[in-house]
Amino acid sequence: MNQDDLAVKVFKALGHPVRFKIMKFLCDGPKCVCKLNEKFEYSQANLSQHLRILKDAGLVKSEKVGLEMHYGLYSNDVKNIIEDVGKYVLNYINGIKETESL
């Protein structure tokens, strides 16, 4: 897989509303899968599929802690992507509002 293919895989993974919400939730730090299940009321199987896609895209990593599986962002670079998208969207919305008020 080349660099462009992996970049597309990252965008596809982030392009799903559930996965984007999971990523935002993980920006606060690693969480056990039980906390993810509490926050996102999806079946265990559904949540596992989303986490696998995020992991395959290199966005999250997992670690077994005792009997629990914990998921966290792969690196702070991933957190920066999520935060930068939020900033971009806010600036974009504010720009549209300014344009509409003219």
Automatic annotation (TrEMBL):
<keyword id="KW-0238">DNA-binding</keyword>
<protein>
    <submittedName>
        <fullName>Arsenical resistance operon repressor</fullName>
    </submittedName>
</protein>
<keyword id="KW-0804">Transcription</keyword>
<dbReference type="InterPro" id="IPR036388">
    <property type="entry name" value="WH-like_DNA-bd_sf"/>
</dbReference>
<dbReference type="InterPro" id="IPR001845">
    <property type="entry name" value="HTH_ArsR_DNA-bd_dom"/>
</dbReference>
<dbReference type="InterPro" id="IPR036390">
    <property type="entry name" value="WH_DNA-bd_sf"/>
</dbReference>
<dbReference type="GO" id="GO:0003700">
    <property type="term" value="F:DNA-binding transcription factor activity"/>
</dbReference>
<dbReference type="Pfam" id="PF01022">
    <property type="entry name" value="HTH_5"/>
</dbReference>
<dbReference type="InterPro" id="IPR051081">
    <property type="entry name" value="HTH_MetalResp_TranReg"/>
</dbReference>
<feature type="domain" description="HTH arsR-type">
    <location>
        <begin position="1"/>
        <end position="93"/>
    </location>
</feature>
<dbReference type="InterPro" id="IPR011991">
    <property type="entry name" value="ArsR-like_HTH"/>
</dbReference>
<dbReference type="GO" id="GO:0003677">
    <property type="term" value="F:DNA binding"/>
</dbReference>
<keyword id="KW-0805">Transcription regulation</keyword>
